[in-house]
Design brief:
179 residues, mainly beta, Metal Binding Protein, Guanine Nucleotide Exchange Factor, Chain A, four-stranded antiparallel beta sheet, 15 strands
């Protein structure tokens, strides 16, 4: 089948999965997260390490929870090594939070483009994450939630961090493009 003959799949045109993981004790299902997303305080310490540099370390982080996505962690700039970040010209738009500005990580031996993002002027309801930074777990060496090293949400598009406390399936896995 030629590319132009394939059916077009857009967000919201494919039904969510019928089979969902059942959360165990102390776990959350991403299918219980709301839409529009909710912002809440994080009780655990959040840490980010790249090339041995402690890039972020916070006990004042926030997380954004959205249906089918792993939590996205936002760290206040005061808890981030801003001297190792540089703003870029890249921007994206979220229908809930508004326009995101991106940051590259600048280290002595490498640069990681567009590894973090923030919302300098978030839309109503998301003012609490103004100028907080979120990092793609797949672009940093270590992303920690408490004492657990998180893994990236599948798909290398979404910024969620997967830990043993959340169950899916997660948006970004194969077959989820239209959720």
């Amino acid at each position: 089948m030629a590319l132009m003959d394939r059916p077009r799949v857009t967000a919201g045109t494919v039904p969510p999965p019928r089979v969902r993981a059942i959360p165990g004790p102390g776990q959350e299902s991403v299918w219980d997260y709301p839409r529009p997303p909710r912002v809440e305080a994080v009780p655990e310490r959040i840490r980010i390490v790249v090339d041995g540099y402690p890039l972020a370390d916070s006990v004042a982080a926030l997380r954004v929870l959205e249906t089918a996505g792993a939590p996205v962690y936002y760290v206040p700039q005061v808890d981030v090594r801003m001297d190792l970040l540089e703003p870029t010209a890249h921007h994206t738009f979220c229908e809930w939070k508004g326009e995101a500005s991106y940051w590259s990580i600048l280290l002595p031996d490498r640069t990681i483009p567009n590894a973090a993002w923030s919302y300098p002027t978030p839309m109503a309801g998301y003012e609490s994450i103004r100028d907080y930074l979120a990092f793609y777990a797949w672009l940093v060496d270590e992303a920690w939630v408490g004492d657990e090293r998180a893994t990236p949400q599948p798909g290398r598009f979404y910024g969620g961090w997967v830990t043993s406390k959340v169950v899916g399936p997660f948006k970004g896995e194969p077959g989820t493009q239209g959720w």
